[in-house]
Batch of 2 targets.
Target 1
Amino acid sequence: MHAGPEEIAEAIARLKGGGIVAFPTETVYGLGARAFDQAAVARVFEVKGRPPINPLIVHVSGEGMAREVASAWPSEARRLAKAFWPGPLSMVVKKADRVPANVTAGGDTVAVRCPDHPLTLALIEALGEPLVGPSANVSGRVSPTDARHVREAFTDEQVYVLDGGPCRGGIESTVVDLSGGEARILRPGLVTGEMIAQELGRKTVRGGGGPDGSTLRSPGLLPQHYAPATRTVLVDAAAVTELGKQHPGRSVVVGIQGHSGGEILLPADARGYAAGLYRALRDADASGADLIAVVRPPVHGEDQELWEAVMDRLLRATADR
Ligand code: TXA
Ligand code: MG
């Protein structure tokens, strides 16, 4: 059942007491705590098992609140907020002093986004303060796209869950770094580099590497992430029929409608695929198979950048462990 005013009131009470509240967004569920409450933020890291070197995204109800967590709000941020907020775009800007150091993993920048979900916008608005919100999964695991996924991972004592139904987007927000004078895409998502470039009237750059390729600009972008517990591999559509013969155990195939076989089938369009991907991986994980084979989606055509965002998640889900 979807949450209403009563649940929002309970969520606010929990947050004010330093507690953690999982909130729905248009991408995935987030693990919320008051961003200005250093101890509450520390508990988010603890509950998630998240390495302290990985900074959190601060969620706001609008641009005015975003400016309160930033020490400078560049014209690029103004333009992109106008074009894509509320929506799946996180912007990295210079942080304001009052943002606790653990939110930004000690760094001088902060990622900020305004999520597109009425329940969460109402929550932040009523609280009057921003919330940190890493994806509401145990660190390294698949992000939750349903309240049930969050309830499975945490106890009610650890995390109060605001149920806002299934998430529409399905993969995490695009992260763009505006703190260095350029627009650098650190994590691809449903707001593409092309969409950003069009809005800014200039090209974006990609990747988390510094000029010498050495600095990890977005420490959360570790190679193995978003992974099911079961061993997961990528296979070509043509290899699906061979898989049963080659693999001695029980395998489950996550395929694409109209393109391949498979026990679990995802839509053939990039947005539909993204929306269903994490649920599919969870279902595959729960199927009892000892191998998950994901059919490699086609990364070309007009939605190439969206497919690249999907592939980014698939490569992490299937990275060697
Ligand atoms: O869609 C989303 O962004 C979801 C929902 C809940 O809003 N949240 C989410 O948070 O995916 P999380 O913590 O799972 O991922 C945050 C990403 C990480 O890759 C982190 O390294 C990066 O954003 N990040 C956060 N602050 C940063 C900063 N100051 N500079 C660079 N990267 C940052
Ligand atoms: Mg995450």
Target 2
Amino acid sequence: MTGGTETRWWRSGVGYEIYVRSFADSDGDGVGDLDGVTAHLDHLAWLGVQAVWLTPFYPTPDADHGYDVMDYCAVDPRFGDLDAFDRLVAEAHRLGLRVLVDVVPNHTSDRHPWFVSARGDRSSPTRDHYLWRDPAADGGPPNNWRSYFGGPAWTFDEATGQYYCHLFLPEQPDLNWRNPEVVAEFDRILQFWCGRGVDGFRIDVAHGLVKDATFRSNPQCRPVPPGATPREAFACFEHRYDIDQDDTTTLFDHWREVVAPFGAVLLGEVGIYRPERFARYVAGSGLQVAFALEIGWMPWDPPALLDVITGLASSAGAGVAWEVSNHDQPRAVTRFGGGAVGLRRTLALTTLLIALDGFPFLYQGEELGLDDGSVLEGAHADPVAVRNPDAPGDGRDGARTSMPWTAGPGNGFTTAAQAWLAAEERGAGDTVSAQVLDPDSPLHRYRALVGLRARFAELWSEPASVHRTGDVSLAVRRGPLLVLANLGDTVEVHELPPGTWWEVFDSATCPVDSSPHAATATIAVAAERTVVLVEQR
Ligand code: BGC
Ligand code: MG
């Protein structure tokens, strides 16, 4: 799977995010683990996805559920060990699945040996691996930067009289990417995992690594309203100096050289919502592709969704990793109205995304049409929820409850009395084992949808021409394929180009298209529905 040449394999398939600690628990401790993933890779091969992204499984004190790393080249014993990792990669490759691992370069854990040494000792050899500043004249933080997770992005270190920067929790000190030893250490980390056979990296907070060299305050657009969630507070500033600095992309040019001998792909998480800024990350010789996060935060607002999609498609095209859900956001089914309504809308949107250039991703459980899970009273674990009790809206736990494999206690995820994130049991109809047997299930519909890219290579290989056919509708033409998305709440009649068109997928019905019906001259696309047509030649 690896080799010296870059094949751009990701353009043809669909990726799948595995939130490792909630996917499958092999040893009954209530925490998903690498052997659990390995045991269920056959489900993903059957679903037809091409690659899996594994969320962090490195040693961690879990202040941010693994996104606070103590050792970048090891496996936390709760998740397994390096042998378990090697078995996972071998089994994935045997099944034809690529493996992407998460690399977390913006910050380490405060328990990483570098920070343990740096904190409390100005002369520590790793002091400059982090971002330290003197207090402002009034003794407060050195500037007005905010943490994504609430409060200032600075914490005071009593022992040395300086503040350190953290765009996330105080337990996640930000690294100093202007320090060459930091750069060299991450080269080594990338090479370590490439050497173990990974096919690429998902890069956490790729837009955040480099900060303004003189730490200027950000312009503030409006006062932070009382009771604002951390996200709302963050949005009250223009993030001119803390994130998205011009030289961030230069760093990824270097990373690309580091991974090139292994043929690995660099997939960044780029939380930048201006398409022209987002596009810079995938325009050059750095990242090949980047997650666009905006859709995953949006409610059901068809004109706005289509604005975002067309903006990204025209500016960043094949460089976009499309997703509607991930482990940081409420699931799309929930955001879009819940239940059958939310699922219908999610599938209409996802069918459209799969027809665009780029690398579409599903988040575990999306193929089952899941709503957010119901976390039990008192069991919330996400620091964003737990540490902001007055602004609970931003909590991420609902999307992180365990994967339902079978009916009954533990849902086949664990044999422990309780999963690490205790939640209400999912009903039988939400489980993999029930949906596999039901050809009308969301699982079968997703499988048919994922399979479209294999069935019709033109769906990714032919140039895409994207036309906004209305406020709430979009048409994508790719060679002999025509994809019509009607996200509105009334039926739309489309003129078809001359020829005979066969409907091969409909986001709202079960995938029995062994005898596709011929459509002629016009086609009525029902509300909140996307259809895929192929021209008979
Ligand atoms: C990850 C989050 C994490 C944050 C800080 C992200 O965007 O996806 O889960 O909390 O980075 O590492
Ligand atoms: Mg376990």
